[in-house]
Amino acid sequence: MCFSLYLNSWRILKKEKTIPPAGLMKAIIRAGENMETPQKGNQVVFHYTTRTTDGVVVESTKSNLGGRDVPLKLILGKSKMLKGWEEGLMSMCKGEVSMLKIIPELHYGDPEWPVPVPDDFPKDQILVFEIELLDFRSVKVVTDDFGILKEVIIHGQGWETPREPYEVKVRITGKVPREGKIFFQKDQEPFHFTFGKNEVPNGLEKAIATMTRGEIAKIFLSPPYITGASAIPDLPLEADDLEFKVELLQVIQVRDMVGDGRLIKRRLRDGKGEFPVDCPLQDSVLRIHYKGILPDDGGKVFCDTRVDNDGEPLEFGSGEGRVPEGLEMCVKLMLPGELALVSSVSGFAYDKFPRPDGVPDGANVQWEVELLSFEAVKDWTGMNFKQIMDDVEKIKGTGNRLFKESKFDLAKAKYEKVLREFNHVNPQDDEEGAIFAQTRNLLNLNVAACHQKLGDPSKSIEWCNKVLEGNPHHVKALYRRGVAYTARGDFEEAHSDFETMKRIDKSSEQDANAAIIKLQKKKQDAEAKARKQFKGLFDKKPGEISSVSSTDVKPDGPEETVHPETKPPEDLPEVEEQTLHPGKFWRLFNSGTSFFKNIARKGCAIL
User: Fold this and answer.
1) What is the DSSP-derived secondary structure letter of residue 194?
2) Rounded to whole angstroms, how far apart are CA atoms 263 and 342?
3) How many CB atoms lie within 10 A of CB 224?
4) pLDDT the model gives residue 591
5) Model confidence at 536, in pLDDT bands (50, 70, 90)?
6) Could you tell me the pLDDT band of residue 115, with boundaries at 50, 70 and 90?
7) Origin, by domain of life (predicted)?
8) Res. 113 pLDDT band, cuts 50 70 90
9) pTM above 0.70?
10) Distance between CA atoms of 216 and 29, rounded to whole angstroms?
């Protein structure tokens, strides 16, 4: 046996080992097809036979030498591989057969080799490996265990990849590589399946999830990823490996907008551009055609802009509450020219929006909607101060309308958007500075009013403080904070704000006094409830605890709303005061020992 070629290759290993002289020798038995050799990251497919230097066969993948005739498939630089193999394989061409003579330190005798071998295996001897390199290819490793590999033939377009619950249309051919037998083929009529429904093997779904539209790839699956598939009845589940050739024709985007199935957007026709960078995610003027359908009433159509609107599309500004919430949420994730079907429960449709004729209460709806075009709202770049403030008044007016329509989240978003943009506005003189400061204060207080309406008095207080930090004598901010303190049960702080109002501005006495009366009433009610809830607790001697009957404590219920008899100062959306929740007794302790004084119990013990 002639080992004609000596490889003196230096390799960087974990311990910076080098291949010693005569450590790896190679003899070519049959030349390969060309001069191209595999590189690190390539998958190599090869048969091997291990012999001692005396010619005794130790192991083999070939059936005539005791193997299963299943070639070995490894990835250079990634798979666990004998060091001598890796170096030798990278010197071989496709179709080449060579002999590799390897010292123990570079095969199974390597102390770092992680796979144990039988005790009678000659791992401490020089071994000769006959290797036939059948094929090699550049692959993408889809799973860390190398169980799913992908060879890209033609790269796709864009970057959007499918995922559950998306649908896809593909051309596909499946075969068993060892036998060359085709068991599934859909290369003429597209094959359509839905992610997450076990219609194709789990490994195939994972691999297609890495593809983009127009991509053509070969996908290789090992047994753990060859799972049952309802759409491929003849799938050979016992195969050693499977190969699929896939062309991804279309990604049908299906989005669960809120994560619980109540609002689903299904793309029917692709739009123009890249998702999501070319979608109207920011405030825009949108032009759409849509058809409203009642799916539970035989698909009855209750509106169609192409018919009811003289063929004219609907034009509206996003974030202005002009269309149902669910419809706008989905349109903002569409591309121009896209056609989509939106399925919505009543909560995202017409429960909180003017109900069209023919739509029953609580009805689920579908909208078949086409985004014709959109125009993003212009920013303030290049505008002078007057133009900016005119635009601010327009946006603030929209926010006030939304507030009056009880769309507090949308209103808050409008106010906050202006406040964010204000960070880039620089008034040029004192007059502009005064206008700017006044407008910013009003916007902060409007946000506070929205938080109050949304049941978050603590956030309302934070936004009032933004104004009072710059102007402690701002009457409207004091009033708004006092209302929020009252709703939170901080009665002394609220009383202090209302008294400060009266000292600063005599004209606010009527509003402040009315608020104090309501505060006192609310405080008395809270203390009465507290006495009842803790009935008997203060009649016991130190060390004793009174039991409270379940009939003495009312369960927490929804907060009631008390409408103020007087309006708050102008320029702010009106906010209803909220009563203290019965289950929030702990807030009374913010007043410190004054609570116990108000209880008027002598000799009470604090346990």
Assistant:
1) E
2) 7
3) 12
4) 42
5) low
6) confident
7) Eukaryota
8) confident
9) no
10) 36
Residue 273 has pLDDT above 50, yes or no: yes
Q: Is the dihedral of CA 391, 394, 397, 399 positive or negative?
A: negative
Q: What pLDDT sits at residue 582?
A: 37
Closest by CA to 568, choosing from 397, 438, 431, 446, is 446
8 Å CB contact between 507 and 491? no
Q: How many CA atoms lie within 13 A of 358 on its CB side?
A: 13
Burial of 523 (0-12, 13-18, 19+ CB in 10 A): buried
Going from the C-alpha of 595 to that of each of 211, 252, 362, 600, the distances in angstroms are: 66, 63, 47, 9
In 3D space, the residue among 239, 242, 248, 192 whose CA is nearest the CA of residue 219 turns out to be: 242
Which residues are CB-neighbours of 589 under 8 A, at least 6 positions away? 595
Tell me whether strands 284-294 and 300-304 are parallel, antiparallel or unpaired: antiparallel
Q: What share of the chain is helix, strand, coil (3-state, %, to 5)?
A: 30, 25, 45
**pLDDT value for 570:** 43
Q: Which of 46, 336, 352, 78 is nearest to 344 (CA)?
A: 352
493: left (phi > 0), else alpha (psi -120 to 50), else beta?
alpha
The answer to whether residue 580 scores a pLDDT higher than 90 is no
* 137 close to 151: Cβ distance less than 8 angstroms: yes
- Asked whether 245 and 216 are in contact (CB, 8 A), the reply is yes
Helix (H, G, I), strand (E, B) or coil at 38: coil
* Residue 575 pLDDT grade (very low, low, confident, very high; cuts 50, 70, 90): very low
pLDDT of 371 above 80? yes
Residue 261 CA, chain-centre distance (Å), reads: 15
DSSP secondary structure, 150-186, as one string? EEEEE--SSS----TT-EEEEEEEEEETTTTEEEEEE
- Tokens at residue 241, please? 């490996």
Looking at the DSSP assignment, which residues form a beta bridge with residue 193? 168
Reading phi first (left if > 0) and then psi (alpha if -120 to 50, else beta), residue 175 is in: beta
**What is the predicted pLDDT for the residue at 537?**
60
Question: 429 CB contacts (<8 Å, ≥6 apart)?
Answer: none
User: Residue range 539-545: average pLDDT?
Assistant: 55
8 Å CB contact between 449 and 575: yes
**Distance separating alpha carbons of residues 232 and 46, to the nearest angstrom:** 30
Considering only CA atoms, which of 458, 526, 525, 448 is closest in space to residue 493? 458
Q: Largest Cα–Cα distance of the chain, in whole Å? A: 112
Q: How far apart are CA 52 and CA 127, in angstroms?
A: 5
b/e string for 568-606 if b means 16 or more Cβ within 10 A?
A: bbeebbebebbbbbbeebeebeebeeebeebbeeeeeee
Cα(81)–Cα(115) distance, integer angstroms: 10
Is pLDDT of 607 > 70?
no
